[in-house]
Amino acid sequence: MPNIGHSNIQKGGVPHFADWRAETFAPEYRVVIPTYKRAEKLCSTTLSLLRKHGIPLHRIRIYVNPENRGGEAPEWAEYLDMFRRHDLLEVHLRPGGTCLLQQMHRILEDAVGQYVIVMSDTVSDITWKAENSKGANTVQSLPIGFLPALFAHGHEMMKAGQFRAWSLSASHDGRFMKSNNITQRLGLLDGNMTGLLVEADMLSIKMHPEDGLIYDVAWACHLWHDGHRFFRYLGMCCKHPYRGKGGQEALFGCIEERRRSEDRCIQRLANRFPELVSWVSRGTYSLKRMQYQFRKHGGDPILMEKYLLSGRGRRPKHANHSMSAKERQRRCRTTVGSGKAPATSGKRKR
């Protein structure tokens, strides 16, 4: 079984997360997803993706608003109906809160002492910058079976380096993704996928009531300020529709109103943690992009070695994709009936 020790972290080199793909051992974990007004989207994207990657449905917890909001009926019935339609009744449905901040606090309360992976409700794919057959890096979908390996690798990294969290790159642009690179620098804990080792002291973190609007930024600052370090895989990201219908987008009448609220929250966060984050106002920024910048803090990058699914020897030819039926047939074809003599164990010709 692959192993990561504290010395690997110090030296800046660790086994590739894909080396955990063939392992039968996996850490105990839960996938937790806060959601609001996205029952259909949740089932057709994030839950469908997790099922495709072989994540057991009973490990998944969905947190919904348990109360009426503005005269609306609670969401329980809608989500249960969608679970039935998509054959997802093994997924656990839990009462959360009336806003993202309350949802996340309830998630942390339920997960003290556990390893959880927090995801958003609109993730349609996970992409990575992988080496193709010609040796060039291309952005492609994470192969089936690699996601559980990532969960296990993140857990081993946190134990070895005394980290409290891990996340993926927030950039979808391959030009800014770094294959096999893990950064220890202060940065965004992307809410689309973040792993956490939850301890009771996390419950004492006090955020401003409006910080749910910028939760990913605020959460990263609070953890870092309290001495909790984390790392991010810069060669992978989650594909999702940014600010799609539902969720926090449903709380605002227009995009300009949301931008004003975000600016106010980021300015307040920057005043509280001036050594960690700053508010930046640039006219070229899209209205959908939050105006902040993290300060430079953290250790040197950690590089993952090239992965070997067999555990040793040469890298498998089909490491980046599953073989088709024809490829398997060609690989396993015998010489019987081909008119050629089978290989013998005689002396090699010189």
What this model shows, in words?
- The chain is of the alpha/beta class and 350 residues long.
- It has one domain (7-319): Alpha-Beta Complex (Spore Coat Polysaccharide Biosynthesis Protein SpsA, Chain A), CATH 3.90.550.
- The chain has eight helices and 15 strands.
- The strands form three sheets. The chain has a ten-stranded mixed β-sheet, sandwiched between helices. Strands 7-6-12 form a three-stranded antiparallel β-sheet. The protein has a two-stranded antiparallel sheet with strand order 13-14.
- β6 (125-131) and β7 form a beta hairpin.
- The protein is globular.
Features:
single chain; 350 residues; alpha/beta; Spore Coat Polysaccharide Biosynthesis Protein SpsA, Chain A; ten-stranded mixed sheet; 8 helices; 27% helix; globular
- H/I helix tally: 8
CATH class label: Alpha Beta
Question: How many strands in all?
Answer: 15
Arithmetic mean of pLDDT: 84
The protein's oligomeric status is: single chain
Write the layout of secondary structure elements.
Elements lengths: L5 H6 L1 E2 L15 E5 L4 H14 L7 E5 L11 H10 L6 E4 L4 H11 L4 E5 L5 E7 L5 E5 L4 H16 L3 E4 L12 E3 L9 E5 L17 H11 L4 E4 L2 E4 L15 H18 L4 E3 L12 E3 L7 E3 L20 H8 L18
Parallel strand pairs: 1-15, 2-3, 2-5, 3-4, 8-11
Antiparallel strand pairs: 5-10, 6-7, 6-12, 8-10, 9-11, 9-15, 13-14
